[in-house]
Amino acid sequence: MDLLDTILNAMDAPPANNEQQKTMIKKQREMMERMQNKQKEELLRFRKYVDERMGRFAKDDRQSIEFQPLDKVHRSVIHEIAENGGFIAMSFGREDVDRHSVVYKKEHAPGEDEVTARRNGDGWNAEIAKEYAERRRERLAQEQSDKEASISEAANCTSSSTSGDHDSSEVKPTTNYKAKYAHLIGESAALQAARKTETNQSYGFVPSKNKKDMRSIEQTLADIQAKKRLRLAQQQELEQEQQALEATTSTGDP
């Protein structure tokens, strides 16, 4: 017997399930299965109820139908059946409190006011529709007023800036600065130094016609060769002068 067998034999064996524990586990499993089957049957009944209600809704002249607050699973059934039937389904309210589904016919889809009212928890009827329509008109009027005020303010700012520039161009000095420095540089020099200077607008600009090289390729190559020959001739002339100067210097030495 090796070491592993010794360790395994020394360990306590797992406790055996007695008949009472087995019976309890079996009952729990059966109860779970019954609950699951009950939920399935309940969902089937609910699906049938929603399907029948949608069928009646499709045949009458109602624009929408509203369901009671339900959990997420039941609301998903409503949305699925509504989508298959060609309707529009929307949910409103707080989860686990009053969240419910409303189904609309596509030709009577909810407007912005109704969606806002239902999301706010106000519901929807003729009186609420009138109230929200009035709110929307007031909001649009306020937005238009704010927009006009912004445009007017921008125009006033532009006008003030323009008038300010105009006024600044007409400002005149209160003292004669020419006479102030006349005792230092004289009358004529002061007038010459104080003359108005103007910038040269064309400074640094070269006409486009001067940038174009109108020479052909042959003329360009010929000019390059001529420059090379001239440079070579100048270099040879410089070397000859240096040689003549060296010869003169060597002849004059004693």
UniProtKB/TrEMBL annotation:
Biased composition (Basic and acidic residues): 135-150
Domain R3H residues, every copy: 44-107
Stretches the record annotates as Disordered: 135-175, 195-214, 235-254
Alphabetic keyword roster: Coiled coil
Domain of life: Eukaryota
SUPFAM superfamilies: R3H domain
Low complexity: compositionally biased ranges: 235-247
Coiled-coil stretches: 18-45
Pfam families in alphabetical order: R3H
Coiled coil among keywords: yes
GO molecular function: nucleic acid binding
Protein name: Sperm-associated antigen 7
